[in-house]
């Protein structure tokens, strides 16, 4: 039995988060009425989000939207900035030197076997066709009827199926004048047709009846991600170019995402419905509008259970009726105002330390919302995405929910921002996100394969982390 299995009073609750001296008013506002800590930690685990997450209205995420400015993204005029030839040459020399040092000097986390491990999972899996896998005979062509269910039941069904296929969370949007603004400009037209097609100008034509968009998140492995972190004298006080031992976390997630995509589209087509993936580049917005998470300072989607560990928010446009899910508020975006964990270690200072989200967009950023922005040129010039894994690894919301303290901290942050600075400082004190020692890096190779929580083995179920 857990040693924390004891009656939980408001006083115990505040003591557990180190706030025993806080006023009664605050304690009353945030302390839940669970009878013990086990109940608190386990509460709502069947739900997509934990119990302290609030649902907001449709099309109203915590990143405020100005619908006069939030328009379809024109990729011709709002593309990513590109680094200078000089910077590209600098990075090439720097990276080759870095790689060779690791290989020849047998540096823990960077030696030949670590580089082999990073490459082992890179570039696997191709994307499914935009209109889904072929060779499927839907039930209508087999003398049966297609699947019929209510939009709510269909959402539950998709969540169950997609989770088996590798999606951590599944939500949905109804496609309407507002949500269609998330799409790229001139990429998609909806028409009175039966099957989707793509024309010579590469515009996607999608049936009008396909007015639902299913969004699902694919998570990367946090335990393995931590093995990227390293200090570098070229970036004093920051973290820098990742160690290959941590890179499989990212590349494996991309591969998993493709595998999930094939399965998810195949599932919908086998129910007797269309499945299309077309026209959206800014997939983070899909996750935020469908309530999978909020936007974090690092500009990715941040979720209550897994922080910045969503590697991809993928999507399927379909005529299968699916109930829309609303944006959420778990205090995440608010937490970013004081946290700064990602920004303070960013080697390029691309994230800034502004204390409030902004309407200012800057190159490569989408206008029309009040949120967190990255200086993409600075980020690219340091070598991201492939040569930087710092910001997404450092988020305090990444920590596993096991134990009792993290659910408590998160539930408080979901109710009041008063303690956010304190929680972020605790994260620093407990040295989460510190680079590992050489001994720890070497020990990875002889870890206990039966107990290691970072290993994700298809077919064996899921560790509780
Ligand atoms: S990926 Fe970019 S924004 Fe993030 S820490 Fe690295 S340089 Fe900074
Ligand atoms: S590390 Fe802190 S500031 Fe950065 S996204 Fe996470 S909560 Fe926000």
Automatic annotation (TrEMBL):
Keywords: 4Fe-4S, Cell membrane, Iron, Iron-sulfur, Membrane, Metal-binding, Repeat, Signal. Its cofactor is corrinoid. The keyword Nuclease does not apply. Its main location: membrane. SUPFAM superfamilies: 4Fe-4S ferredoxins. Residues 326-356 form the 4Fe-4S ferredoxin-type domain. GO terms for cellular component: plasma membrane. InterPro entries: 4Fe4S_Fe-S-bd, 4Fe4S_Fe_S_CS, RDH, TAT_signal, TAT_signal_bac_arc. It is found in: Cell membrane. PROSITE patterns: 4FE4S_FER_1, 4FE4S_FER_2, TAT. Gene3D superfamilies: 3.30.70.20. It holds the Pfam family Fer4_16. It comes from the Bacteria. GO terms for molecular function: 4 iron, 4 sulfur cluster binding; metal ion binding. This is Reductive dehalogenase. It comes from Dehalogenimonas sp. 4OHTPN. The lineage of its organism: Bacteria, Bacillati, Chloroflexota, Dehalococcoidia, Dehalococcoidales.
């Amino acid at each position: 039995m857990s040693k924390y299995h004891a009656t939980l009073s408001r006083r115990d609750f505040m003591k557990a988060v180190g706030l025993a001296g806080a006023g009664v008013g605050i304690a009353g506002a945030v302390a839940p009425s669970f009878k013990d800590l086990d109940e608190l930690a386990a509460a709502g685990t069947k739900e997509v989000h934990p119990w302290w997450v609030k649902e907001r209205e449709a099309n109203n995420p915590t990143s405020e939207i100005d619908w006069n400015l939030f328009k379809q993204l024109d990729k011709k005029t709002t593309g990513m900035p590109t680094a200078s030839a000089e910077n590209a040459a600098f990075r090439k020399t720097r990276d080759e030197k870095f790689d060779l040092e690791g290989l020849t000097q047998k540096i823990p986390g960077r030696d030949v076997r670590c580089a082999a491990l990073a490459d082992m999972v890179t570039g696997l899996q191709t994307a499914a066709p935009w209109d889904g896998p072929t060779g499927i005979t839907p039930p209508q062509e087999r003398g049966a009827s297609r699947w019929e269910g209510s939009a709510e039941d269909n959402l539950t069904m998709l969540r169950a199926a997609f989770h088996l296929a590798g999606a951590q969370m599944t939500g949905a949007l109804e496609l309407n004048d507002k949500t269609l603004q998330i799409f790229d400009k001139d990429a998609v037209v909806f028409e009175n047709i039966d099957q989707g097609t793509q024309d010579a100008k590469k515009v996607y034509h999608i049936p009008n009846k396909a007015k639902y968009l299913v969004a699902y998140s694919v998570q990367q492995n946090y335990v393995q991600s931590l093995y990227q972190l390293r200090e570098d004298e070229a970036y004093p006080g920051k973290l820098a170019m990742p160690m290959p031992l941590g890179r499989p976390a990212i590349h494996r997630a991309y591969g998993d995402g493709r595998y999930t995509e094939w399965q998810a589209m195949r599932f919908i087509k086998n129910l007797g419905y269309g499945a299309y993936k077309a026209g959206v580049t800014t997939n983070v917005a899909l996750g935020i509008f469908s309530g999978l998470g909020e936007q974090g300072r690092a500009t990715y989607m941040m979720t209550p259970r897994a922080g910045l560990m969503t590697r991809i928010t993928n999507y399927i446009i379909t005529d299968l009726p699916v109930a829309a899910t609303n944006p959420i508020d778990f205090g995440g975006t608010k937490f970013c105002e004081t946290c700064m964990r990602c920004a303070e270690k960013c080697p390029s200072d691309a994230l800034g330390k502004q204390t409030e989200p902004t309407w200012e967009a800057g190159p490569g950023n989408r206008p029309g919302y009040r949120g967190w922005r990255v200086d993409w040129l600075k980020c690219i010039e340091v070598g991201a995405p492939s040569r930087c894994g710092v910001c997404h690894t450092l988020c305090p919301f990444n920590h596993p929910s096991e134990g009792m303290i993290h659910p408590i901290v998160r539930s408080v942050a979901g109710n009041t921002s008063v303690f956010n600075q304190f929680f972020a400082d605790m994260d620093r004190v407990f040295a989460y996100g510190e680079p590992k020692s050489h001994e720890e890096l070497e020990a990875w190779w002889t870890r206990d394969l039966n107990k290691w929580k970072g290993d994700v083995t298809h077919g064996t179920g899921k560790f509780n982390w």
